[in-house]
């Protein structure tokens, strides 16, 4: 495929390497540090978008309007995601979005969802989520942590929302607390903790590098080719 990259930071450079390894052509690169002209995307088979929240919506709409399938992993703008998904459907576009493309994280979300079901009636245990990332990450909580909370909320009758906390906190209310920490060059650590007066249950996913994210992104791009609609990681790993 002729794949265009929107965003050429650390993720963009890793995606470029894997695209070339899998015999895809990097058709064009659009990045504020190189070239901001989105017209460079025209003629591409697909675009992969990893930029910033304020730019993502404009970039994705541009692709949809021109019939360019787009895979996006930009986080920090989830409140605008549902209207954009509807825009894609209304314009018969192709969008694959996930806050995290790691296969391990996808499984972690699923396992956490099952844990939430099991713990739903265990009122003695209070829940807290924690995420730790490199000090260059701008959004907090991370998109991965927000998606994690959403999976658990959907599986539970105890919780109806989430809220950000500066320190690790445990809630007896109906909102899941998420604490965030930024230091070093940590790719990402996410933890689910249920705690009672007597013990705790701790479930953690730790990324060792960005390689797992990048593999998922390119797999999503290959999967999206020829499809119309809005998709996510559940679709990529569906048996259908």
Task: Explain the layout of strands and helices.
Blueprint: E1 2-6, H1 10-21, E2 25-30, E3 46-49, H2 53-65, E4 70-72, H3 81-90, E5 94-97, H4 103-119, E6 126-133, H5 143-155, E7 161-165, E8 175-182, E9 188-195, E10 200-207, H6 211-224, E11 229-231, H7 233-236
Parallel strand pairs: 1-2, 1-3, 3-4, 4-5, 5-11, 6-8, 7-8
Antiparallel strand pairs: 6-9, 9-10
Describe it for me?
By secondary structure, the chain is α/β, with parallel strands linked by helices. It has a six-stranded parallel beta sheet with strand order 2-1-3-4-5-11, sandwiched between helices. The mean pLDDT is about 90. The chain is elongated. The protein contains seven helices and eleven strands. α2 packs parallel to α3. It starts with a strand and ends with a helix.
Number of contiguous helices: 7
Overall strand count: 11
Shape: elongated
Strand content: 25-35%
Mean pLDDT: 92
Helix percent band: 25-40%
Spatial strand order of the main sheet:
2-1-3-4-5-11
Low-confidence stretches: none
Could you give the order of the helices and strands?
A: EHEEHEHEHEHEEEEHEH
User: Separation of termini?
Assistant: 23 Å
> Gyration radius, to the nearest Å?
19 Å
Q: Characterize the largest beta sheet: strand count, sense, and whether it forms a barrel.
A: 6 strands, parallel
Helix-strand category: alpha/beta
